Amino acid sequence: xxxxxxxxxxxxxxxxxxxxxxxxxxxxxxxxxxxxxxxxxxxxxxxxxxxxxxxxxxxxxxxxxxxxxxxxxxxxxxxxxxxxxxxxxxxxxxxxxxxxxxxxxxxxxxxxxxxxxxxxxxxxxxxxxxxxxxxxxxxxxxxxxxxxxxxxxxxxxxxxxxxxxxxxxxxxxxxxxxxxxxxxxxxxxxxxxxxxxxxxxxxxxxxxxxxxxxxxxxxxxxxxxxxxxxxxxxxxxxxxxxxxxxxxxxxxxxxxxxxxxxxxxxxxxxxxxxxxxxxxxxxxxxxxxxxxxxxxxxxxxxxxxxxxxxxxxxxxxxxxxxxxxxxxxxxxxxxxxxx
Length: 339
Known about the structure:
Blueprint: H1 2-13, H2 17-32, H3 38-50, H4 59-69, H5 75-108, H6 117-124, E1 132-137, H7 139-143, H8 147-155, E2 160-164, E3 172-178, E4 181-186, E5 193-197, E6 209-211, E7 225-229, H9 235-247, H10 260-264, H11 282-295, E8 298-301, E9 309-312, H12 320-326, E10 329-331, E11 335-338
């Protein structure tokens, strides 16, 4: 019987894309009756599914994979996923889950139960660019025993914190790591999106609880805090600009990690007056530091001793285009400078 079941699945994988996709649901249902074959069968199905020209999210396949293998976002499960089906199939399922978690947050976890379609549709465009994510749930969502809330907490195991503080009971936060930055959206309306450096967060990965106030996820005095973006009319344009400039993220495009500097070349430069001899403001210096963090460039601040801020990069370095646009000047053998 085992050989017959596996032979049936193998035969289905030889079909063309359309015929095979039509067989996925009955194949998964067949495996449900033969639990001893579930892993071998899912491996065959998933490897074939990812090879299809189009591999849209398949809900039954996704839910079965999560039930049997748990989420590929979990550190403890990544090696198993890669070993069984390889990187491409694992990334496909991770993208399915990312999109589902975005929809869950902006449809189910909104304060007051009102879905936020605008924010949901915006962040779905960047699902391919999200490197990691976490949820911080207020008491209402964290302890809610409704099936949807239990599913969300189970699927986000290891990536789910409790949002502390008494005024956070009905709020939730969604944290997305995109490039070298973490973008934090809140469920309650009229809350800005707070952005932190990924290597300097107001919480530690794996932390059980986190504050959603100015002492935590909204701490503008924290050394890792970078910016606050508000959802005023036309907010999508400012968000898109920031994501492109700082996280090299473009809507509906897969991020190319090894050639991120290519994405900077067509970025519209910040409009500033960089006439020779002008003094940079503290905010502009902070921008220089942020650029250097993105490009892993060394920066030295000698202003306390009457000197300048130096970026130790040569003329042909990937960061050069941004530094030129921002108004820094170059000195041979030393790098880029401003004061």
